[in-house]
Write a structure and sequence with these properties.
Layout lengths: L1 H14 L8 H7 L4 H4 L18 H17 L8 H8 L3 H12 L13 H9 L10 H4 L19 H12 L10 H6 L4 H13 L2
Helix pairs in contact: 2-6, 4-5, 4-6, 7-11, 9-11
Protein name: Cytochrome c4
Subcellular location: Periplasm
Organism: Shewanella benthica
């Protein structure tokens, strides 16, 4: 399992396009329309919407292109979302790069999480080989910072509710823009208790 994860990481590094150059200052102005859901500095106060502050620019760029692709193809390609699909259609490639540069330059604000289930830490750090669940730490790192070159996003300190929503979407394949279906494969093996515990633990990471 570890060898497979390593091989996929190498593949991702080879297949990713060159890093785009965005202008963070221009992105700050362009991102004003995003602030209602994601906050002025990318620290969303609404837990169903993700914090974008400090997220990798390349990951943000990919998601915005995937949202736009889904909107253009009626959900046949990319990442389908009724709100973000409409928002992304209004953005040019340069707009996407600038907005991504702005949010990635911001600092994520951590929120204190209490009563973290031990199950969440166990699954994040060690997975569950009896069920074929790979440890999250293998791709997202000890503090949930991710690996930009491999396309693995920063997830530490993210809203627990947002994480829960996305894990459920991966599980039922309503979200399918992950590399080689890796997240779908893992999420399908998680119980509702697993997802609840993992979301809380990941949210507590700083």
């Amino acid at each position: 399992m570890k060898k497979l994860a390593l091989a996929l990481s190498v593949l991702a590094c080879i297949s990713l396009p060159a890093m785009a150059e965005g202008n963070a200052e221009a992105g700050k102005t362009k991102a004003i329309v995003c602030s209602a859901c994601h906050g002025v500095d990318g620290n969303s106060m609404i837990d169903m919407y993700p914090k974008l502050a400090g997220q990798q620019a390349s990951y943000l760029i990919k998601q915005l292109h995937d949202f736009r692709s889904a909107a253009k193809t009626g959900g046949k390609e990319g990442r389908n979302d009724p709100i973000m699909g409409g928002m992304s259609l209004m953005l040019s490639d340069q707009d996407i790069e600038d907005i991504a540069a702005y949010y990635s330059s911001q600092t994520k604000i951590a929120v204190e999480v209490k009563d973290i289930p031990a199950l969440g830490e166990q699954l994040y750090k060690g997975g569950d080989m009896t069920r074929g669940i790979t440890a999250c730490i293998a791709c997202h790192g000890p503090q949930g910072a991710g690996v930009e070159l491999a396309g693995f996003p920063a997830i530490g300190g993210q809203h627990a509710n947002y994480l829960k929503i996305q894990l459920n979407k991966f599980s039922d394949t309503n979200r399918n823009n992950d590399l080689n279906g890796m997240m779908q494969d893992i999420a399908k093996k998680l119980t509702s208790d697993d997802i609840e515990a993992l979301s809380s633990y990941i949210s507590s990471l700083k």
